[in-house]
Amino acid sequence: MNIDSLDPNVFAPVSREAWLKLVDRALKGADYQEALVSRTDDGIAIEPLYARRSDAAPFTRRQTDRPWVVSQRMDDPDIERAFLQLGEDLANGSNGVSLISKSSPSAFGIGLNNETGVLAARLAAAVSGNSISLRLDGLSPAFAAALAAALEKNQHRPTVHFGLDVFASSTTREMTGSFKRLHDAGFAGTVFNADGRAVHNAGGTEAQELAVMAAALVAHLKLLDDAGVAPEVALNIASLCLSADRNQFVTMAKARAARMIFARIAEVCGISDPPVAHLYMETSYRMLTRLDPETNILRNTIAVFSAGTGGADEISVLPHSLTHGIPDPLARRLARNMQTVLIAESHLDHVVDPAAGAGGIEALTEALAEKAWEIFAGIERDGGLAKFIASGRLAAMVQEARANRVAKPIVGTTLFAMKAERPVPVLGELSPVAGGMGLMPVRLDEGAGA
After folding, report:
1. Is the pLDDT of residue 77 over 80?
2. C-alpha 237 chain-centroid distance
3. Which one of 11, 65, 180, 385 is separated from 431 by 20 to 30 angstroms, measured CA to CA?
């Protein structure tokens, strides 16, 4: 065959008009919008084809010289067993620990019962010599202070995300004092959370979750500003918290939109060179099911992939058997190894923002950020997030979104469901699930429709 005789225009760029003609022929009269354009729960249209974007700057993690933190939950109510699990996790790939209080909205029926200084000292001793990330979720300011004091004795001081939340505080004065003391302690990490996960897990949309995250961030900025903490300092000690679910492109876009919103808030505060946001993502509770729970492993894998490629700094995986009880060692191992395999074997961290320039992801990122900003602005006009929660408007908004979600077939739950369920090994029963922000989490098999 004479290669020189081949038509050089065979692989020439094809115009959108030419592509649409071929699509029209293939559709055979079917409506283009109905057949090929889908919509997110926020009504954002997702086209089947987008042009490459050359004007988009990539988003970056706070730490670009290392993979995201593989964070494993420390949440077993049996404290002795919890410390054994901690040692197992740190010895086998985890470099982050999320301490979950039983009162946290992220406890989902389990969580630590003990918040004493003795526990803080024991934890500091257990992580001594490890350069890890510690995250507190729902624990009291008093425990955070005790842990900070205990960790100061360690030779290698870990990164600590103290997880304070003004919406879970008994008094604003107590919280303000804790902010300043923990910031002055000089730990690398963050002091407070701007958390939207409760909205997601109660059935809200992606834009609603981002909007509440933004409103929580601004509420903390206002509180700290009144206490004399400059906005650029406050932004640097903020941790953005979101859920990651099985919708790959939407989760990637949501993570990127969070950074866009963070930068916009910094701009409004008059900060010309804002810090890089710290983004923590936890796999979705609402996408889990009790029926054929091994399918939750697949959902978690997609969620971690999406969060990692979306630029999360730290990711925590809810074990697949959490819907049945306290996860056993195998379930915890799968949750941990899911992340380490994606990092060590798939090398997902080797490219900064792999979605940068992809027309579909860029368009979805911008549309989500715009929709979230619109909802956030409405919350601020109504007096801020605290009043929005107290009035019941947040709960009503999320309930409406959940009710309007179109039911879709769910593999392993409504599609190809097992005729007989296998027994699921767990270490104990769950306690009643707590809510946050006046919202109660729901799961797929309860009608969440993630």
Report:
1. yes
2. 17
3. 385
